[in-house]
Design a protein that fits this description.
The protein is of the alpha+beta class and about 150 residues long. It has a domain of about 55 residues: SH3 type barrels (Roll), CATH 2.30.30.30. About 35% of the residues lie in helices and about 20% in strands. A five-stranded antiparallel beta sheet has the order 4-3-2-1-5. Strand 1 and strand 2 form a beta hairpin. The longest helix is centred in the middle third of the chain and has 31 residues. It is elongated, with a radius of gyration of 28 Å.
């Protein structure tokens, strides 16, 4: 008599941390790596190249996160002086104004519009700044006069 056993899959710690709103730090990763190494089967040890690959993947993930944060700061800085429309978090009517400053709040860039700070995700539209026409003087001289 045989019974079918359904497969059980272990949750990926990085996915579990991301789903719960936590981030996996380098210290957490190294702690997991040491635990994994110390509790492996001595008769069937895991290859050292597997550990090196895991470390390389985590390093690449950290670099990707740092690059993403840097790109967000660059994007926010490019909005300086631009007219933007932002959607307030409280659901009130959109606000339009010129970006006067960029601030870093909790590691994420925020733009200052009309004295209020808004995250980049709240920016709904971007328009070039309103420029006032300038009057130019005619500085050319008549070449026929001698």
């Amino acid at each position: 008599m045989s019974t079918a056993i359904s497969s059980i899959t272990a949750a990926d710690p990085a996915q579990t941390a991301a789903a719960s709103g936590q981030t996996l730090t380098q210290a957490n990763f190294l702690q997991l790596l040491v635990t994994q190494m110390s509790s492996q089967d001595p008769l069937n040890p895991q290859s050292d190249t597997d550990f090196a690959a895991q470390l390389a993947q985590f390093s690449a993930l950290q670099q990707s996160q740092a690059m993403s944060q840097g790109m967000s700061v660059l994007q926010a800085n490019s909005l300086l002086g631009e007219m933007v429309t932002v959607a307030p978090a409280d659901g009130s009517a959109p606000i339009t104004g010129q970006v006067s400053a960029v601030q870093i709040q909790s590691g994420a860039p925020a733009v200052l519009v009309n004295g209020q700070t808004y995250s980049l995700s709240q920016v709904a539209a971007i328009a070039p700044p309103v420029s006032t026409p300038t009057t130019t003087t005619n500085a050319t001289q008549n070449s026929n006069s001698k």
